[in-house]
Amino acid sequence: MSRRWMLCLVLLLALDGGALWCWRWHKERRYDGLIRDAARRYQLPPALVKAVVWRESDFDPKVVGKAGEIGLMQLMDEAAHEWAGAQHVPGFVHEHVFDPRTNTLAGSYYLAKLLRRYPGTDDPITYALADYNAGRGNVLKWMTGPARTNSLAFRNQIGFPSTRAYVEAITRRYAEYRLEFW
Fold first, then answer.
1. What is the tens place of the pLDDT at every residue in 64-111?
2. What are the residue ranges spanned by the domains of the chain?
3. pLDDT-derived band at 26, boundaries 50, 70, 90
4. Is 56 among the residues known to form the active site?
5. Is the pTM of this model over 0.85?
6. Of residues 56, 69, 78, 82, which has the active-site annotation?
7. Residue 89 backbone class (left: φ over 0; alpha: ψ -120 to 50; beta: rest)
8. Which CATH number fits domain 31-60+99-180: 1.10.530.10, 3.90.190.20, 3.40.30.10, 3.90.226.10?
9. What percent of the chain lies above the pLDDT cut of 70?
10. Which residues, in sequence order, are bridge partners of residue 75?
């Protein structure tokens, strides 16, 4: 057990109000090294990857989504296999993304790919997050008029309230993590 975690445990016993804070602090930071490595490998801001992990799984590597998404970054089979093929991973099966390292690598690869799809926009992150959540076809439907390049106009045209909330939540958390995360 790490010294930080032991300190949190001691604080937990000493201070009732500190228990939840210590648990949350540990939960949100235990994958920072993996996130940093994956982000560096695929040239992404680590705080962005961490914000996606937060929203997709709340840092639970065992979570499975309703449509079969797996792990920290909630990867679908197709996206995971695309990463495995590009990286020449032999014998890959979708269940391998239950591993936090594999998941953050595959998810970061996929997120970087989505960011490269929207180079002519003022904020490719907004478009990539909508794509990550709702798919390319929906993003293309919403990219009409000024929303082709203006992320604020694009956000207003997102046709699914859940996707708009997803983009806004990750954007806010990304800003928070940028202040504390490397």
1. 999 999 999 999 999 999 999 999 999 999 999 999 999 999 999 999
2. 31-60+99-180
3. low
4. yes
5. yes
6. 56
7. beta
8. 1.10.530.10
9. 85
10. 70
